[in-house]
Amino acid sequence: MDRLIYLDNAATTPVKKVVLEEMLPYFGEAYANPSALYRFAGEATDAVDKARDQAAALIGAKPEEIYFTGGGSESDNWAIKAAAQAYASKGKHIITSRVEHHAVLHTCEYLQKQGFEVTYLGVDEDGRVSLEELKAAIRPDTILISVMAANNEIGTVQPVEKIGKIARDAGVLFHTDAVQAYGHIPVHVDEMNIDMLSASGHKLNGPKGTGILYIRKGVKIRSFIHGGAQERRRRAGTLNVPGIVGFGKAAQLARETLAQRAAAQEKLRDHLIRRTLAEIPYARLNGSRTDRLPNNANFCFRFIEGESMLILLDQLGICASSGSACTSGALDPSHVLLAIGLPHEIAHGSLRLTLSEDTTEEEIDYVVDELKKIIARLRDMSPLYEDFIKNQ
Fold it and tell me: How many CA atoms does the CB half-sphere of 215 hold within 13 Å?
């Protein structure tokens, strides 16, 4: 491949060299189990403690409120299932939204089969939940509200602080899936009244297979993995020291560079959005124009299918993703795009482009130039587009 333009950073990010260098000693000479009592384990123990401090500092949490996990999906599962079990004596009603990541939606569906009741909040055309609908959904038996901080597909940032206050005033636990937000936009657990927060290392140039669950001190939540006494007896299993160290270093770097990184990405993102909407007919931006992640641009192009677009982009060395997915041989559009009111035929033609701090304007211009050609080519083969043009 002559060139590679990676615009799928919402899916995963490369591990930064400085992060990898921080991890390497714990694969080799400092390989001890941090749960051991002998002095040789001290270096690993100190490294985990340092990473916990770094992970906490990014969201204004206390280190002892950070629990390391195997990733965002585990953290979501733990927060929702364990809270449901712990507070079941108070009630069995949970509130979430229709645009959550499947780690939240499928967990809620599982709990419904266990006798819990779940209210799925609708969203507006930008993918934002209604605060009034949320207030109206709260009942005496509501025990948990789980609404993501920012959407992984369309990039819309939810009014987390207001949601947290509503939950706090009602005496209901508030969990947020912050996998896309952590390290990319400001998040402060006290200011936003967040009781539990999930994040994942590989979304901010850390290693895959690492994550955190923030649990506010005083929240009653049960263990998710049973076994040993690790993570203050709440999450058993030998700690992944290299991964944890990498997570901590990535969190530190994200905290130090957040403001300047976000500003640079917003500028490029807006350039991408402007060119795409101005130069490609029958294109629409999905998600909020302003309240969105700095690096996210999600479009729908009428009269084409997202998968065909991805294949042609890939042939040019451009890595992107589509909101639609091929499941059991049937093409299904994104649940997020359907939730914001798009019909199936438009939702099928979605494209998500997510930038990194290394993305350049020259790359963005190349992508838009090639995307114009690809969409024109696909529409030339579309009988629906041909009929549409004839009827204009």
Answer: 23
Number of H helices, E strands in the chain: 14, 14
DSSP assignment of 130-188, as one string? PHHHHHHH--TTEEEEE--SB-TTT-BBP-HHHHHHHHHHHT-EEEEE-TTTTTTS---
CB 243, CB 202: distance < 8 Å:
no
| Two structure tokens written together for 5 | 């333009």
Q: Which residues are catalytic?
A: 326
Q: In what order do the strands lie in the sheet with 93-97?
A: 66-69, 211-215, 196-200, 173-177, 142-146, 93-97, 117-121
pLDDT truncated to tens, each residue of the chain (392 aa)?
A: 578 999 999 999 999 999 999 999 999 999 999 999 999 999 999 999 999 999 999 999 999 999 999 999 999 999 999 999 999 999 999 999 999 999 999 999 999 999 999 999 999 999 999 999 999 999 999 999 999 999 999 999 999 999 999 999 999 999 999 999 999 999 999 999 999 999 999 999 999 999 999 999 999 988 889 999 899 889 999 999 999 999 999 999 999 999 999 999 999 999 999 999 999 999 999 999 999 999 999 999 999 989 999 999 999 999 999 854 433 344 678 999 999 999 999 999 999 999 999 999 999 999 999 999 999 999 999 888 888 888 88
Q: How far apart are CA 101 and CA 151, in angstroms?
A: 8
Q: What is the DSSP string of 184-231?
A: TS---TTTTT-SEEEEEGGGTTS-TT-EEEEE-TT-----SB-SS-HH
The pTM score is 0.95
Dump the DSSP string for 9-37: TTT--PPPHHHHHHHGGGTTTT---TT--
Q: How far apart are CA 71 and CA 59, in angstroms?
A: 17
The H or E element that residue 69 is part of is strand 66-69
Angle between helices 361-380 and 306-315 (to 10 degrees): 130
Token digits for 35? 């749960």
